[in-house]
User: Fold DNA-binding protein from Bacillus toyonensis.
Amino acid sequence: MDEIKNGELEASLFSVYTTREAEQIWGLAENTVNKWCNRGKFYENEARKSGKVWLVTRNGMNRLTSK
Assistant:
């Protein structure tokens, strides 16, 4: 496994959100991001399911919300 510098690790770790976190940060209605995930709105590298929880990236959210 490659070593990752603290800044890069921190940036990567804190640029991934649950759907609920993303909705709160971007000011979206409840279940909006979950619906986007289920409808395939995110690119393959922007969202993935971990167990029952969808995880989305900051880049994906910015792309879909035009921010």
